[in-house]
Description:
- By secondary structure, the chain is an alpha/beta fold.
- It is about 50% helix and about 15% strand.
- The strands form two sheets. The protein has a six-stranded parallel β-sheet, sandwiched between helices. Strands 9-8-7-10-11-12 form a six-stranded parallel β-sheet, sandwiched between helices.
- The chain starts with a strand and ends with a helix.
- Mean pLDDT is about 90; it is low at about 60-65.
Amino acid sequence: MSLRVFILAGEPSGDRLGGAMMVGLKQLSPGVSFDGVGGQMMSDQGLVSQFPMDELSVMGLAEVLPKYQHLKRRIREVAEAVIASKPDVLITIDAPDFSLRVAKLVKKSSSIRTVHYVAPSVWAWRPGRAKRMARVIDQVLALLPFEPRFMQAAGMECDFVGHPVVAEPQATPNEISRFRAEMGMGDTPFVLALPGSRRSEVERLAPVFGEALAAFCKSHPNMRVIVPAAAPVADLVRDKLQSWPGDALVLDPRDFEPATAQSHKRAAFAAADLALAASGTVSLELAAANTPMVIAYKFQWLTWQIMKRMALIDTVTLVNLVTCSRVVPECLGPECTADNISTALSQVASNPQTQHQAMALTMSQLGLDGESPGLRAARAVLERLG
């Protein structure tokens, strides 16, 4: 009898993970069938989503409250669909506020096996989440190599399956040459500026990034600034860059065909001499491209006070965490000032080699040169199913 999988993703990053896992499941278990909720990448692998995934892609209290009753109804509908279809396994991907509520209802009324893909960052804050999660989740698939011990200590099976960044294509020499030629860059050195993909991030970070880069470029007069902008905030980025130094270049993905836009982004990441980036997963994209970086982030005052008191770690950058080092400078909260950032950029520019070594180790630890994370995730699910 063929394997029956109910799979649920609630946001684009989860859709990518789900699509890659579905490829792996189809390879290892031919004839597997899928039900659930997902986006385009999961649909490409044969999933007919019960409703559009973007209904679940809601972030922030102000955005969630108006849709709260609708989301509660969707949680109930999905749980009822899982119980009715009696799959061999329910796989929920990230989006814990939605996913774990579905799993709770499923476990309340059935013995269906539950797998959650992406471990919560209990090593960073709120460690009690793991024990609550263990009441409804049988197995966790972890992206980071140090996460299984935290999940296992809480009573769940856990497998490290690798981070999807290691499977992302990197720029070829030809792509880099074409990018430099099309942008009129020649051999000009440049620094990447990545002030975030959300409007609130760009609003907070663009002014201090601009001031810091102005100070940095005074002592590095040949350095140009390139800003790969996310499409939803590209217009805002252009507006904010009017006060930035020199001839800052915005890479707006809307100006190119999708494949060309992706190629330009890969080339910019790979060819940059260094980067100034908002805190987040972009640090791993930079590490994969072997680009040294400085990480900076401004928080709302109350958010910073809460985080400062609840945090269990002293760094937010995964290169630092994975390598047990502090080679990537961070300017966070009150330390996110133009003076601090420009000083850190100058330090990194003068000695990038330390970061190069840490980034290579990070990619190795995250699964580079092994099986693809999607295939490893599929294998881990099937092996635990027995």
